[in-house]
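Weekly modeling sync, notes
Attendees: AB, CL, MP (scribe)

Item 1: holo prediction request
CL wants a bound-state model with (~{Z})-2-methylbut-2-enedioic acid before deciding which constructs to order. AB pointed out that an apo prediction alone won't tell us much about the pocket. Agreed to run with the ligand included and paste results into these notes for async review.

Input as submitted:
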Amino acid sequence: MQTIVFPPYNTSPKRGLSDVQKKILKMKQERDAVILAHNYVCEEIQEIADFVGDSLGLSRQAKSTSAKTIAFAGVDFMAETAKILNPEKTVVLPDRAAGCSLEQLCDPVELEKFKRLHPDALVISYINCSAKVKGLSDIICTSGNALDIVRQIPSNRQIIFCPDQHLGSWIEEKTGRKMLLWNGYCEAHTLYKAEELLELKRAFPGAPLVSHPECPKDVRDVCDCVCSTEKMLSFCRENPSDKFIIATVAEMIHRLRREIPGKTFIAATSAGESKLQCKNMLMNTPEKLLACLENLSPQIELDADTIEKARAPIERMLEMSK
Ligand code: CIZ
């Protein structure tokens, strides 16, 4: 087994910014832009972003920014969410092809048909879905607030949960609530094998194994903590261990190291690789971020009707997770 161990972060001496990072910061001023970056993008972008976080934190930042332009380093549904919350602003994404398997596995036409079979059910959708699917939903959630949101729904109300079957089954386990689950999955997190993770635990005795709820149940069952990326920070900060095995997209470790510099993080292996990668998040390179700021392209464009329909369930999520 070949794995990557990220030793404690060395905060001093700090290496200087690269030329492209400096150019991005200059162009950001010229464009009156804010750079929002997801926890899963590369370290070079995380280092210079105005805010690095999960979809919930990023949505809150997108809603409150006064900048004219939002440069979103992440995948398309995240940048779309920023646009839905700020239709008057310019929202750019470094690579328009950066999508998400969960989004692709939930076709709005199919969801509409399914809703017709269960007309009284409430639709809660994971934020990893298209703007059209958001528009067909009653409430959006993230992995960080999903438990909280589901617990607020009256127990006699049927829930359709889409698109992630694994996040859905984790919510069922934690809340004791049965839901109608869509059958989507994250093509990255489903690459983990429970056996490989158990082998890592044996190789690093005493290091808690932390995974994301997008992992399948047999994988989650061998973990010490299952939580959203944001909660991984508080778990690793508060837990007395000085070493953790992290089973989510490996770029998450950059943020963990920066914010918890005294500890060591081990990237969990997946399908014969030394770490888990998300091919869509990897499309966010510093060069493409610079180009999208320079050209104000590619931009997120959504029609007014899609924005209006998708906005209400996102706002509902923000209200329910204050
Ligand atoms: O909510 C998000 O941003 C995702 C995709 C994962 C997480 O747990 O932060």
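Recorded for review: Residues 304-320 form the longest helix (17 residues).
Action items: CL to compare against the apo run; MP to circulate these notes.
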